[in-house]
Design brief:
- This protein has 157 residues and is mainly alpha-helical.
- It has six helices and no strands.
- Helix 2 packs antiparallel against helix 3 (40-50), helix 2 crosses helix 4 (56-65) and helix 2 (18-33) packs antiparallel against helix 6.
- It starts with a helix and ends with a helix.
Length: 157
C-alpha cells in the first residue's frame, strides 16, 4: 500500500508538464482498456520510448488504475455497446458453429471496446490536464497571496 501512495505522490510532485503527464495517462488508459492481456504495459512503455513527450509515470499510474478487476465491468459494457450497434444475425457464416459464435461475439465486443477506449482516454486526458493545470496555478496563486499578505502585515515604514 505504501508503494501505491508513493507512486501517486511522485505523480503529483513531479516537475513534468501537465501536457506530458496527461498524454501519458491517456495513452496508458487507451492501451489498458484495449484487450491486450499481459503485454499491454510493454506496448505502452515501447510507445513512450518512441515518443519522448509521453510521460512514463502517467502510463504506470493509468495501468495501476485500470487493473483487471476494474476492467471486468468495462468489458461487459463494451459488449453491451457493441451489441446495440450490430445486427443480431451476422451475414458471414462459417462451417463450424463455434467459429460463428466467436465471430459474432468478438466483433460486437471489439467495436464497443474501441469506442469506449477512445472516449475514456480522451476524457481522461482532459481531466488529468485540467487537474494538473489547476494544481500548478493554485500553487502560484497561493505564493502571490502569501507575498501580498506578508507585505501588508509587515509594512516597512
Amino acid at each position: 500500500m505504501n508503494k501505491i501512495k508513493k507512486l501517486y505522490a511522485d505523480l503529483i510532485n513531479t516537475q513534468a508538464s501537465p501536457e506530458s503527464l496527461a498524454l501519458g495517462f491517456a495513452i496508458g488508459t487507451l492501451i489498458a482498456i484495449l484487450p491486450t492481456p499481459g503485454f499491454g504495459i510493454f506496448v505502452a512503455l515501447f510507445v513512450s520510448f518512441l515518443y519522448k513527450k509521453i510521460n512514463r509515470l502517467g502510463i504506470i499510474v493509468a495501468f495501476s488504475i485500470w487493473n483487471p478487476v476494474v476492467l471486468i465491468p468495462v468489458y461487459w459494457l463494451c459488449y453491451i455497446l457493441g451489441d446495440m450497434m450490430f445486427t443480431p444475425n451476422p451475414d458471414i457464416r462459417f462451417a463450424y458453429e463455434l467459429l460463428n459464435e466467436v465471430y459474432h461475439y468478438s466483433g460486437k465486443f471489439m467495436i464497443g471496446n474501441l469506442l469506449i477506449a477512445v472516449s475514456v482516454s480522451l476524457t481522461s486526458y482532459y481531466l488529468v490536464y485540467q487537474l494538473l493545470y489547476l494544481r500548478n496555478h493554485r500553487k502560484e496563486a497561493n505564493k502571490a497571496f502569501k507575498m501580498v499578505w506578508f507585505t501588508q502585515f509587515y509594512k516597512v515604514k
